[in-house]
Amino acid sequence: MSNLVCVVCGMAVNDKNYELNKESFMDSNSIDDIKYCPFCGAPIEYLIQGGKELIFDRSSLNDNALRIIDHAVKLEIFNGDFYKKAAVIAKDSKVKKMFQALSKIEFMHARIHKKIGGFKEDPVIADMDYSKYDSDEILLEMACKREKHAVEYYEKYSKEIEDENIKKIFAALSKVEEEHIELTSKEETA
Ligand SMILES: [Zn+2]
């Protein structure tokens, strides 16, 4: 996998990092068969040999586009924070690990949006207390709801974004969240 680059997050995937966040995927990467970016979760079609991060013209972003991207940063940080806290509350070790990995993936998505919008600071979000979700089933149910909301967000607002590459990034991240829906609903019934 020499020089395999994720065009969504810009990270190079190599034999040292391909297994990162593996608990956040339905199917895992192997050294000879890479299926996802281990950093942002983008599927294989976004991993390009010698590829370069998608670029976009930030000056073309109007106020509406900037608002959409700013909200996407908040949405992903909110979800990343949820998973971080859910990983502490969860009882089952497999669920804990999955939440930890999902947290890292969502925080990476926030980073991608920050870069798109040229935002330097992390937004301040409310410090949520999720301790009332006192079973893994409830945590998974809440996780699944968040993922559905994220997919709806990307689908709805990508129509208002004009830049083709930003649309591509929204589509990639939406696919990642779609798999998270499957992942969190699968665990629920297990
Ligand atoms: Zn990536």
From TrEMBL:
Q: Record's InterPro entries?
A: Ferritin-like, Ferritin-like_SF
Its lineage opens with:
Bacteria, Bacillati, Bacillota, Clostridia, Eubacteriales
Top-level taxonomic group: Bacteria
Name it: Putative trifunctional 2-polyprenylphenol hydroxylase/glutamate synthase subunit beta/ferritin domain-containing protein
One Pfam family linked to the record: Ferritin_2
